[in-house]
Amino acid sequence: MMHSFSELVIGGVLLAPFITYAAASLVIILALRPILRVLRIREIFSHPSIAGLSLYVVILGLLTVFL
What we know:
61% helix
């Protein structure tokens, strides 16, 4: 099975699809932060920043696998 990866072109520079996935994950995390703040997710974890990073990595992995 052959994948057709579409590169992002900015100013004539080809960027790998991973860069696009990383940027999309960042946008998703920034959109989820107010929702997670309302749900008081920070109080559940002893290190909320590590939990946020873990959520970013999970979203990035899901985008990489399914797109």
